[in-house]
Amino acid sequence: MALDLLARAWSDADLDAWRNAAARFIEGEMLPHDEAARHRGHVGVELWRRCGELGFLCADIPEAYGGAGGDFRHEAVFYEEMARRGLTGLAASVHTIVAHYLLNHGTEDQKRRWLPRMARGELVGAIAMTEPGAGSDLQAIRTRAERDERAGRPGYRIHGSKTFITNGFLAGLVLVVCKTDPARGAKGTSILVVETRDGEAPREGYRVGRVLDKIGMKAQDTSELFFDDVFVPEDALLGGREGQGFYQLMSDLPYERLIIGVLALAAMEGAYAQTLAYVREREVFGQPLATMQHTRFKLAEAATTIRVGRSFIDDCVARLVAGTLDTATASMAKLWASEAQGKLIDECLQLFGGYGYMTEYPIARMFTDARVQRIYGGANEVMKEVIARSL
């Protein structure tokens, strides 16, 4: 039985039509410009706005807040179609995660103020958690926000720096994880919503540092951010209550970690399809590489891994849509899929020989892009600890 790369237990006719529309857009308007985006280090704001115009951003946000009114499956389709083609420049997943913090924890005013603009692509979303000295250990963050009324209205002044911030260079809206009461540890953590521009001008005290030079995901802007006495009004506090930041972060982790699993599985499917096509055309010792037993066995192993992984990830997608996906299972999805992604794409690259080491071949880019999947969203070592605690 041939491996059907598009078979999804959670799909239906409407989702198939959505997938076809996404594939046409990605092939026609994203793929041709990927090389230029890789060289400059970002996809540009125009692409974000075009995605918003066509409804591909915030697809699972309710229509009342400017979204498409779908569910997680609509998001998954868009992520999959990009990942299968090795496109990682448009971090729509991070954008949507930011939107979900607003949807799940924001006040009604915050939802209506920011979500429609995010859905239209007018504001690119980023979340600033990681600091030079604080990664997976969020309790170690040092960025602070102090109450201040000097501007004639109550608000906060933010001091600190963040690093490895996806969408950081193009961000129009940043969720800043900071300490509003450092003496209370995790209970003193809050999230402040910072618009990076104040009208037409850059927000005073806010500064974007370097676009960081990564080994992979070259078209995706990942930056340093600096907050030097940045003032935001009181209504920029996510949810309107101090000390809720750690709870807000933890409650949305299953969503974020399943996205990583979805991306990993789709990337594996894309790598497998490219490899299958290559070994059928490439000749070695006068015969197609695909006829050699070693190659056939490697392809058999890859197909089996994808088939097994698809069953697990599809089940997780169904659980998330039903509202029953727990943190431990989502952590398993992130852990297993990202580890499998690295191993499978490495095996696929090997079958390309020297050509697999050339960045002009998508398989080479997919290989380097895969490495960070085991790090962000919580390092895989942290995933093991989360899973172990649930046993």
What can you see in these coordinates?
This protein is an alpha+beta fold. It has three domains: 13-119, Butyryl-Coa Dehydrogenase, subunit A, domain 1; 125-248, Butyryl-CoA Dehydrogenase, subunit A, domain 2; 252-390, Butyryl-CoA Dehydrogenase, subunit A, domain 3. It is 47% helix and 16% strand. The strands form four sheets. Strands 2-3-9-8 form a four-stranded antiparallel β-sheet, with no helix packed on it. Helix 4 runs parallel beside helix 8 and helix 5 (92-105) runs antiparallel to helix 6. The radius of gyration is 21 Å and the shape is globular.
Task: Give a topology summary.
Elements (H helix, E strand, L loop, with lengths): L12 H18 L3 H7 L4 H9 L18 H12 L8 H14 L2 H12 L5 E4 L15 E5 L6 E12 L6 E7 L9 E7 L1 E2 L2 E2 L3 E6 L10 E12 L11 H7 L1 H29 L1 E2 L2 E2 L4 H30 L4 H25 L10 H9 L9 H11 L1
Parallel strand pairs: 1-4
Antiparallel strand pairs: 2-3, 3-9, 4-5, 6-7, 8-9, 10-11
Helix pairs in contact: 1-4, 4-8, 5-6, 8-9, 8-10, 8-11, 9-10, 10-11, 10-12
Structural features:
391 residues; four-stranded antiparallel sheet; 3 domains; Butyryl-CoA Dehydrogenase, subunit A, domain 2; 47% helix; single chain; alpha+beta
